């Protein structure tokens, strides 16, 4: 979690409710990610200059997430991503720990570099087996014959959600990342921060984009699922993530002293 001083900083933002943010869900959007050391988050929040409102639910402005990713026996979704396939998908259950809601979500990247997302409220299976309703939902949006899907990794993190005053841009700030596999292995990455801009188009007219440029930070392809999977499974194509792993090590050493 953020330090007390950062929590006080968040309290200075004008809140926005979940109902209000519905108009900025952006289920068909452009995603732009930046990876940085989590210690920079406070300074970035200070530079917002009132351009964004912060999501608040029941007095809470930091939200914990648990995501469970599914893939095929031959890791089809993982391979789609690391090989740079223009159109690729992910299947996951996301538990919003602060509200208790859980959704089965499908996230798809299109050949036009847009991100589409569909979801239904659905609890995580206790026995790792998808029921008929879940399978039908997945087949609707991932029509290829994929075979059996099973749990691969789990990922937890904390998120701050910001919305522009015009409600045409949403920003998520993720930190306190951890990964685990079904066999009890775990890896923690508290030093990693992920800032993601979700917009309807590629326009650079954004206060957050300006802040990122002031730090000489550039958009980066970064998948929590792929990074976590590469940590626990010796897959043939995981070496394709070497640039990401080098970036992670660079960020880790950035504030070592």
Spell out the key features of this protein.
single chain; about 260 residues; Hypothetical Protein Pfu-838710-001; 11 strands
List the helices and strands and how they pair.
Elements: H1 4-10, E1 15-16, H2 18-21, E2 28-37, H3 41-46, E3 52-55, E4 63-72, H4 76-82, E5 88-96, E6 101-109, E7 115-121, H5 132-141, E8 149-164, E9 169-180, E10 186-189, E11 192-199, H6 207-214, H7 224-232, H8 242-254
Polypeptide structure, described:
Strands 2-7-6-5-4-8-9-11 form an eight-stranded antiparallel beta barrel, surrounded by five helices. The longest helix is centred in the C-terminal third of the chain and has 13 residues, at 242-254. The chain has one domain (4-254): Beta Barrel (Hypothetical Protein Pfu-838710-001). The protein is an alpha+beta fold. It has helices spanning 4-10, 18-21, 41-46, 76-82, 132-141, 207-214, 224-232, 242-254, and strands spanning 15-16, 28-37, 52-55, 63-72, 88-96, 101-109, 115-121, 149-164, 169-180, 186-189, 192-199.
């Amino acid at each position: 979690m953020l330090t007390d001083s950062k929590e006080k900083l968040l309290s200075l933002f004008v809140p926005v409710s979940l109902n209000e943010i519905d108009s900025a869900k952006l289920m068909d959007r452009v995603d732009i990610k930046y990876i940085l050391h989590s210690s920079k988050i406070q300074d970035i929040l200070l530079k917002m200059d009132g351009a964004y409102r912060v999501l608040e639910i029941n007095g809470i402005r930091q939200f914990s997430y648990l995501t469970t990713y599914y893939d095929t026996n031959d890791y089809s979704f993982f391979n789609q991503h690391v090989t740079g396939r223009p159109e690729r998908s992910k299947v996951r259950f996301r538990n919003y720990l602060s509200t208790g809601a859980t959704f089965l979500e499908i996230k798809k990247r299109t050949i036009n570099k847009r991100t589409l997302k569909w979801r239904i409220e659905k609890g995580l299976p206790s026995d790792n087996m998808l029921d008929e309703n879940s399978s039908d939902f997945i087949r609707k949006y991932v029509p290829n014959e994929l075979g059996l899907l099973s749990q691969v990794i789990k990922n937890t993190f904390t998120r701050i959600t910001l919305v522009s005053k015009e409600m045409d841009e949403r920003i998520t700030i993720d930190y306190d990342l951890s990964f685990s596999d079904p066999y009890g292995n775990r890896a923690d990455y508290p030093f990693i921060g992920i800032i993601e801009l979700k917009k309807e188009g590629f326009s650079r007219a954004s206060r957050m984009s300006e802040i990122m440029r002031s730090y000489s930070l550039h958009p980066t392809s970064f998948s929590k699922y792929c990074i976590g999977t590469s940590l626990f499974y010796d897959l043939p194509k995981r070496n394709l993530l070497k640039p990401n792993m080098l970036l992670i090590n660079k960020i880790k050493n950035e504030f070592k002293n």
